[in-house]
Amino acid sequence: MGIKDLIREINKLKTGPVSGEISRRMREFEELHERGNAEWFSELCFCILTAYSSAELGLKIQRDLNCEDFLALSQENLCCKLREEGHRFSERRADFIVCARDFSNIKEIITGFSDERVAREWLVERIRGLGYKEASHFLRNVGYKNIAILDRHVIRVMFKYGLISEIPKTLTRRKYLELEQKLEKLKERVGLSLGELDLYLWFMKTGKILK
Predict the structure, then answer these.
(1) 133 among known catalytic residues
(2) Fewer CB within 10 Å, N or C, the chain?
(3) Domains in the chain: boundaries
(4) Which residues of the chain have pLDDT under 70?
(5) Whether the predicted model's global pTM rises above the 0.70 cut
């Protein structure tokens, strides 16, 4: 399979019901962009929770814990909650979330940057528990569209259709930006933003549209 096959598959999905679901999800991200620091911080916690775990579990925890829980629970109580929810790394993630409270005005911080890629560099440098994938995920979910979320599902689709010759064992900053550039070229050919393209590629691998 090659790039033309991938473009054909994406264009086919763009004409079906998946397109409507993805459009609704993108509107939800745009709506979240208009909300306040507390909602943005909850989304940041969701992305911290998904690292080395799953979006499904992160969603479940985010639904069960409200914004105030993420902002105010003691580290011990937060750890207990995460453990009860079934998170394998409850102690570490609770630590990351408590440390992230230093930036509870996260919306004010992020909207002060010139663009989302500058913001992403700040997130990776300053927020413990966020790599490029998680930082990109957070930014897309709060309404920024021009970054790629390179999780294992998306990378496997890229490999399957020949966008990359091998699946990297680790994603350094250099490798992440290199793969992101490949998706930049693809998004131009299918008429999508990187944020939308991610949802299509993720659906192709998982059959799901989450966030």
Answers:
(1) yes
(2) N
(3) 3-29+148-206, 35-141
(4) none
(5) yes
